[in-house]
From TrEMBL:
Database matches in Pfam families: DDE_Tnp_IS66, LZ_Tnp_IS66, zf-IS66
Protein's recorded name: IS66 family transposase
Domain Transposase TnpC homeodomain as annotated: residue spans: 43-116
Keyword tags: Coiled coil
UniProt KW Nucleotide-binding keyword: no
Organism: Endozoicomonas montiporae CL-33
Length: 316
């Protein structure tokens, strides 16, 4: 089986076969490493014994001829052991390098492909004969096209009765911002960029300008506020779901707040309330508090705090 085949292209049986094959290869390599490690330990022990024989005081009781003969034998054995150890260490190092070497993953097959053909400008050989195509080499490169703006043109047809002249027209589709220009996809992009990617609105303004669309920063801020109002029912529903949990985690993060009419900022807090990893719902609700007073947490948990057997955990 080709190991470079993307996993998404394999069926269940092929995936099972691949797992069995990989497990077998890992087991064989582990056995090889264990064997080499044991041999290394044995050889090092033998070398230690030979060194003790070579440099021990008992060698002084031998006559010069015996000492020379023993030294020659010990030197030969030590040289052979060192050579064998070097081979084993080199083999272990090559296996370690093979494990560390990253393998290039195949590009996801679900991505759209743009086919670019590269063919000779002339399909005639220098000898004058016609060339015949016998195959091809294929390579893939990953490219990225920045977000592209599109314009939705909504056309609502007007229909009139020829008899009574009653006018009929489809209603305007509901929008997040009535009579505004942003479609839901653009609003989602602004919110995800701001809160998910931490991209400030002034940077988004410049990015949109490079794409040829001028959207003022104040307009983007207005969109963010209107989306917050539109999402409030979802936040309330998530809060009600958290109130059904017996254990909640909470943590506060300080933020700088500039009050109207003030020249300096003061410390405000954003509280995060979430369920445990073992709960049936995975939700996080953020609540802004102008101070660190406990009344803000009590207000958020007013329907939950008085329930029996409830636990609120904090990092303090």
């Amino acid at each position: 089986m080709n190991k470079t085949t993307h996993l998404n292209q394999l069926n269940e049986e092929q995936l099972r076969a691949l797992v069995v094959q990989l497990q077998s290869e890992v087991q064989k390599k582990e056995q090889t490493i264990t064997t080499i490690s044991l041999e290394n330990s044995k050889l090092k022990q033998e070398m230690s014994i030979l060194k003790r024989h070579k440099f021990a005081r008992t060698s002084e009781t031998l006559n010069p001829l015996q000492r020379n003969l023993l030294d020659d034998l010990v030197n030969e054995d030590m040289a052979a052991i060192e050579e064998q150890l070097a081979r084993h260490e080199q083999q272990l190092q090559s296996q370690a390098n093979e494990k560390r070497q990253p393998k290039r993953a195949s590009l996801p097959p679900e991505l759209p492909r743009i086919i670019i053909h590269h063919e000779p400008t002339d399909t005639h050989c220098d000898c004058g004969c016609q060339l015949k195509r016998i195959g091809e080499d294929i390579s893939e490169k990953l490219d990225y096209i920045p977000g592209t703006f599109t314009v939705e043109r909504h056309i609502r047809g007007k229909w009139v009765c020829q008899s009574c002249e009653t006018l009929t027209q489809a209603p305007v589709p509901p929008q997040v911002i009535d009579k505004g220009i942003p479609a839901p996809g653009l609003l989602a992009q602004v919110l995800v960029a701001k809160y998910g990617d931490h991209l400030p609105l002034y940077r988004q303004e410049s990015i949109f300008a490079r794409a040829g669309v001028e959207i003022a920063r104040l307009t983007l801020a207005d969109w963010v506020g209107r989306c917050g109002v539109a999402l409030q029912p979802l936040v309330d529903a998530m809060r009600e779901s958290l109130h059904q949990q017996t254990v909640l985690h909470a943590d506060e993060t300080p933020v700088a707040m500039l009050s109207p009419g003030k020249k300096t900022t003061h410390k405000a807090y954003v509280w995060a309330y979430t369920s445990t990893p073992f709960a049936g719902i995975n939700a996080v609700v953020y609540d802004f508090a102008p101070t660190r007073s406990g009344k803000h947490a009590r207000q958020f948990l007013q329907d939950w705090n008085g329930s029996c057997g409830r636990t609120l955990e904090n990092d303090e």
